[in-house]
Amino acid sequence: GIQVEQSPPDLILQEGANSTLRCNFSDSVNNLQWFHQNPWGQLINLFYIPSGTKQNGRLSATTVATERYSLLYISSSQTTDSGVYFCAVGRGANSKLTFGKGITLSVRP
Amino acid sequence: DVKVTQSSRYLVKRTGEKVFLECVQDMDHENMFWYRQDPGLGLRLIYFSYDVKMKEKGDIPEGYSVSREKKERFSLILESASTNQTSMYLCASSLIFGGYTFGSGTRLTVV
């Protein structure tokens, strides 16, 4: 199956700082999503981004499918950004996703 | 907003019991999924369904079965619960090609 590697595994930021989270994958995909899991365990979909660039407020994401990576940018981080960020990829029909291990982000006030 | 509702937030069951975890979505999504999440192992796919009465095994289907009699409802069944099935269970739904929406999860403890 597809391998998904996320880096760095852990990240500590001061409030207001910017950060870049990376997702590498081992094969061609037609589905890539980024999620944020808050401290209460709820997974929130941030982006559906199999290719190209999208922005949503302070967050943006870029996927370069031909080079098999995706980046999630967080600008002006806030304490509420803390949690685990997952990248998940899939190929073929039916949208089945394989998840990376996640990046644990702590934003300190 | 799409809502995915899981019937229980916390559940405690005894070894050997038959356990039903229910998931309902309200946005007419074709696809539904069951994952479990464990520390150090991440999210792993148990089963998924892309249509009513259709199901496919994921990466770890052993010890589980599923039922999808109606488009909006996807049930996960633990035929005979065991302690190694203690976990967080997450249900999700999506369009054929679209973002997942997850439920809030069911933390199951098997004693």
Can you describe what's shown?
The complex is a heterodimer of chains A (109) and B (111). Chain A is an all-beta fold and 109 residues long. Chain A contains no helices and eleven strands. Chain A has strands at residues 4-7, 10-14, 19-25, 31-37, 43-48, 52-56, 59-64, 69-74, 83-90, 98-99, 103-108. The N and C termini of chain A lie far apart (40 Å). In chain B, the strands form two sheets. In chain B, strands 2, 4, 5, 6, 9, 10 and 11 form a seven-stranded mixed β-sheet that branches. Chain B has a four-stranded antiparallel β-sheet with strand order 1-3-8-7, with no helix packed on it. In chain B, a hairpin with a 6-residue loop joins strand 5 and strand 6 (56-57). Chain B is globular and about 35 Å long. Chain B starts with a strand and ends with a strand.
The proportion of residues forming helix of chain A, as a percent range, comes to under 10%
> What is the strand tally of chain B?
11
Low-confidence parts of chain A, pLDDT < 50 over ≥5 residues? none
User: Total number of helical segments of chain B?
Assistant: 0
Number of DSSP E strands of chain A? 11
Helix content of chain B: under 10%
| Unreliable runs of chain B | none
Tell me the series of helices and strands of chain B, N- to C-terminal.
Answer: EEEEEEEEEEE
Query: What do the pLDDT scores of chain B average to?
Result: 94
Helix count of chain A equals 0
Rounded to the nearest angstrom, the radius of gyration of chain A is 13 Å
**What portion of the residues of chain B fall into strands of 2 or more residues?**
over 45%
End-to-end separation of chain A: 40 Å
Report the major sheet of chain B: 7 strands, mixed
Instruction: Name the structural class of chain B.
Output: mainly beta
Approximately what portion of the residues of chain A adopt beta-strand conformation?
over 45%
Q: What does the overall shape of chain B look like?
A: globular
- Subunit organisation of the chains: heterodimer
